[in-house]
Amino acid sequence: MGKRAEATPAGLALLAHISDIDASVRAAEDAVAGFSSGAAGRVRIGTGATACIYFLPAILEKLQRSFPKLEIMVRTGNAGDIVRAIEDKKLDIGLVTMPCSGRSLSVTPIMTDPFVAIFHADADVGDVIRPADLEAMPLVLYERGGLTRTLVDDWLRKSGVNGRSVMELGSVEAIRELVGAGIGATILPEMGARPDRTQFPINTRPLSPPLVRELALIMRRDKTLTPGLQAVCNSLKAAADRRKTDPQTGQSSSEMKKVGKSASGSGA
């Protein structure tokens, strides 16, 4: 109709069955994937924007090198959207902020990610930030609707601080850049608080009382664990274990010491 396409009555009748058809095809692919040599097929991952930017890329790069026949698709969204997509078999696995639940879901916590306060480089702030320290400051916060924003709001509210939000954005990188430009302060997961990833210098501070989020792997209990899906699960868990040793680099304390000694010896 003009420049717009609409389904015919026959098309509308077909659309009512598309979800079931797609699920059946995916189930058939999963059933035979185990007979292929190595990890192959397709794995659909759902996660939040922060994990997609700062946690997944290195994992996906290694998976691509190790399993070139494995196709990985990534979709971002808030935890509720990811949960529903997995329950509807539109995604195979999710990495989401807890709490999350569903009678059909298997939930496996794999790591914690502390929150930090972020300020522009010249901000006169203490070594540890409490809710009262932010009461008079303009805040650039993550948009409402997701668990990340809910956790921050609850942390402030428990101390009787409402927080003066001047901007609410869906991009962690945009928030960080605006804070670096002196627009305000923010609270973000440490995973996304990378000073080396901004054009403006920023400072981060720990929170008191501490605020953390727990990330979990979720999938349907009846999901066929194909070699490809198993490879993705193993890689996500291994990366989470590495991150426990050092949140920024994933290196253990002993590895960091070796790096330090090497740099010192080479005059770096």
SSE diagram, text form:
Elements: H1 9-33, E1 41-47, H2 49-54, H3 56-66, E2 70-76, H4 79-87, E3 93-97, E4 105-120, E5 138-142, H5 147-157, E6 164-169, H6 172-180, E7 186-189, E8 202-206, E9 212-220, H7 227-245, H8 253-266
Parallel strand pairs: 1-2, 1-3, 5-6
Antiparallel strand pairs: 3-9, 4-7, 4-8, 4-9
Structural class: alpha/beta
Strand fraction: 15-25%
What is the overall shape? globular
Q: Which stretches are low in confidence, meaning pLDDT under 50 for 5 or more residues running?
A: 248-268
- The number of strands is 9
Helix content: 25-40%
Give the radius of gyration.
22 Å
Describe the structure.
With 268 residues, the protein is an alpha/beta fold. It is built from eight helices and nine strands. It has helices at residues 9-33, 49-54, 56-66, 79-87, 147-157, 172-180, 227-245, 253-266, and strands at residues 41-47, 70-76, 93-97, 105-120, 138-142, 164-169, 186-189, 202-206, 212-220. Strands 1, 2, 3, 4, 7, 8 and 9 form a seven-stranded mixed sheet that branches. A two-stranded parallel ribbon has the order 5-6. The longest helix has 25 residues, at 9-33. The model is unreliable at 248-268 (pLDDT under 50).
Brief synopsis:
The protein is of the alpha/beta class. It is built from eight helices and nine strands. The strands form two sheets. Strands 1, 2, 3, 4, 7, 8 and 9 form a seven-stranded mixed β-sheet that branches. A two-stranded parallel ribbon has the order 5-6.
